[in-house]
Design goal:
Aldehyde Dehydrogenase, Chain A, domain 2; alpha/beta; 2 domains; globular; seven-stranded mixed sheet; 21% strand; six-stranded mixed sheet; 489 residues; Aldehyde Dehydrogenase, Chain A, domain 1
Length: 489
C-alpha cells in the first residue's frame, strides 16, 4: 500500500514538534515529480530546543541508564525496524528515488548495525594497573556528551544508523540533522525509538539546510561531538567551524574509487561486479567504483562487456521489485551529472552507452560508460555522484597503482586478479580506507569504514567507532600511607 502524502513534524524531546518558524517544505518523489509529503524544517530556535533536550536527557534518565539497558534498547529498536520494514522501505524508496530492492538491503543492514553495537557495549571498559610503590591507576570510559550528527540524502536511514548506533551505545544523546530533501525515514525511526522506550531527548531530529541549520548545530556550544557524512568541500567548512570552540569530529567525505581489473582476473565475476559497484545506488554513493582501471591487453574486451551489461540494467519505477536502478535525487543533480559527461566528450573521450537525458517525468539518467578516458580528465578526478563510469587503461601493476592513487580521495578500492599474492601486494600500496580483493561489497558491521586523504578521517561501523563517542578518564590514587609532600612543607 502506498505511503500517504502527509505532514511530518520535527522530533524533539521524545515527541513531534512544530518548527518555531512555521516553515514547512513540500517534498516530491524524484522518480515521478509527484507530491510525497510536507516536512517541517528546523530553525536555530529548534536546534536550541533539541540540544537542551539532549543535555537534559544526559543529566537525567539517559545518563543513569546502564550499559545492559542501552543494549536492550538498541536490540528493541532493531526489532521495531524489522517489524516496520515494509513501511520504511517504501518511504525511503519514494523519498530518495532508489530501487526498493536496494533499500530493503539497506534496512537489513541498518538493523544489523544496531545489533552489532548493542553487543559491542560489553567491550566498553577501562583498565587498572599498579604503577609502582603504593600508586594505583585506573581508567573509566564516559560518553563525550551531546553528538551533533549530519547525514546525507543518498542513504538517509542507513547513514543515520551508522551514526546513531555507536553514539547511543556509548551513552551519548543525539541531535540528528537529515538532509532537507530526505528526512522522512529518519523521523520515523526516531518515533520508533520513543515507542520502544528510549527516554525523551536521547534522539532528536531537526531537518534543515546545511549552510544555516547544519552550521548552527556544528557551532552550538551545547554540542560536544560532531559527525558528518557528505561532500569534501562541506567537510572542510565543518572542520573550520569545529575549531572554535574545539569539538571532537568525524568526517566521512567524498570518493573517486578505483576498480582495478587485471588480465588474469576472472571476468565472469569481475564484469558484473564492476557494473554493480557503480550503478547499485545510481552512482550516488561515496564509495562507488567510478573509475574502472583495466589492463591494456584486455581493455577493448572489457569496455565492450561493460557497455553491453550496462545497457541491460533495468532502470525504472523504484517501487518495482524488478527495477535495478532508480532515479537520481533531483533533476538539478541530473544536470550536474550530465555536465561531467559532456566535459569528458569535450576532452576526447568516447561515450559507449548512455550519456543523454531522456524524455519523460522523473530525474532518471541512464547507466553511462566513458571509454578512452585519461585519469586526469575532469570526469575521472571529480566525484560525479551519478551512474557514470570512466574506463581507464593501464600498462602494468605499477601503472595501475599509480593511477589508482592519482586522485585526492581515498575511500574504497577493488582489485580483480587471479593471483592472491598480487591482490594483497596491491592492496598494501593503494591509499584507501578499504580495499576489496575479488569482491565488490564495501561495508559490514565490525569492519572499520572510512577514508584516507580528502575522503575524511575517523572510522565507522567498528569497535574503533565507539572511542569517537567516549572520553577516557584516568584516576590515580595512593593505596598506602600518606604521600610525602614533594616540597617538604
Amino acid at each position: 500500500m502506498a505511503v500517504a502524502t502527509t505532514e511530518y513534524a520535527l522530533f524533539i524531546n521524545g515527541e513531534p514538534a512544530e518548527p518555531a518558524s512555521g516553515e514547512v517544505r513540500e517534498l516530491r518523489e524524484p522518480a515521478s515529480g509527484d507530491p510525497l509529503a510536507r516536512a517541517a524544517m528546523g530553525g536555530e530556535a529548534d536546534v536550541d530546543r533539541a540540544v537542551d533536550a539532549a543535555r537534559a536527557a544526559l543529566a537525567g534518565p539517559w545518563g543513569k541508564t546502564p550499559g545492559t539497558e542501552r543494549s536492550r534498547l538498541l536490540h528493541a529498536l532493531a526489532d521495531a525496524i524489522v517489524a516496520n520494514r515494509k513501511e520504511l522501505a517504501e518511504l525511503e524508496s519514494r523519498n530518495v528515488g532508489k530501487a526498493i530492492s536496494s533499500v530493503k538491503a539497506e534496512i537489513a543492514g541498518a538493523t544489523e548495525h544496531f545489533r552489532y553495537y548493542a553487543s559491542a557495549i560489553a567491550s566498553i571498559a577501562g583498565r587498572s594497573n599498579p604503577i609502582g610503590g603504593s600508586l594505583l591507576f585506573y581508567s573509566q570510559k564516559e560518553p563525550v556528551g551531546v553528538a551533533g550528527q549530519i547525514v546525507p540524502w543518498n542513504y538517509p536511514l542507513l547513514m543515520a544508523t551508522w551514526k546513531l548506533a555507536p553514539a547511543l551505545a556509548a551513552g551519548c544523546s543525539v541531535v540528528l540533522k537529515p538532509d532537507p530533501q530526505t528526512p522522512l525515514s529518519v523521523l520515523r525511526v526516531a518515533e520508533l525509538a520513543g515507542e520502544v522506550g528510549f527516554p525523551p531527548g536521547v534522539i532528536n531530529v531537526v531537518p534543515g539546510d546545511g549552510p544555516t541549520i547544519g552550521a548552527y548545530l556544528v557551532k552550538h556550544p551545547g554540542v560536544d561531538k560532531v559527525a558528518f557524512t557528505g561532500s569534501t568541500k562541506t567537510g572542510g567548512e565543518i572542520m573550520r567551524l569545529c575549531s572554535d570552540p574545539i569539538k571532537r569530529l568525524t568526517l566521512e567525505l567524498g570518493g573517486k574509487s578505483p576498480n582495478l581489473v587485471f588480465a588474469d582476473a576472472n571476468l565472469a565475476d569481475a564484469i558484473p561486479s564492476s557494473v554493480w559497484a557503480i550503478y547499485y545506488a545510481a552512482g550516488q554513493s561515496c564509495e562507488a567504483r567510478s573509475r574502472l582501471l583495466v589492463e591494456q591487453s584486455m581493455y577493448d574486451d572489457v569496455v565492450a562487456q561493460v557497455t553491453d551489461l550496462s545497457q541491460k540494467v533495468k532502470v525504472g519505477d523504484p517501487l518495482d521489485a524488478e527495477t535495478q536502478m532508480g532515479s537520481l535525487i533531483s533533476t538539478a543533480h541530473r544536470e550536474k551529472v550530465h555536465g561531467f559527461v559532456d566535459s569528458a566528450r569535450e576532452e576526447g573521450a568516447e561515450v559507449t552507452t548512455g550519456g543523454s537525458i531522456g524524455e519523460g517525468a522523473g530525474a532518471f539518467y541512464p547507466p553511462t560508460v566513458i571509454a578512452q578516458a585519461g585519469n586526469r580528465m575532469l570526469a575521472a578526478q571529480e566525484e560525479i555522484f551519478g551512474p557514470v563510469v570512466t574506463v581507464i587503461p593501464f600498462d602494468d601493476e605499477a601503472d595501475a597503482i599509480r593511477i589508482a592513487n592519482d586522485v585526492k580521495y581515498g575511500l574504497m578500492a577493488t582489485v580483480w586478479t587471479g593471483d592472491p599474492a598480487k591482490g594483497h601486494r596491491i592492496a598494501s600500496k593503494i591509499k584507501s580506507g578499504t580495499v576489496g580483493i575479488n569482491m565488490p561489497y564495501t561495508a559490514f558491521p565490525g569492519i572499520p569504514f572510512g577514508g584516507y586523504k580528502q575522503s575524511g578521517f575517523g572510522r565507522e561501523l567498528a569497535l574503533e567507532t565507539l572511542d569517537l563517542y567516549l572520553e577516557t578518564k584516568s584516576v590515580v590514587t595512593y593505596t598506602g600511607s600518606r604521600p610525602t609532600n614533594p616540597f617538604g612543607l
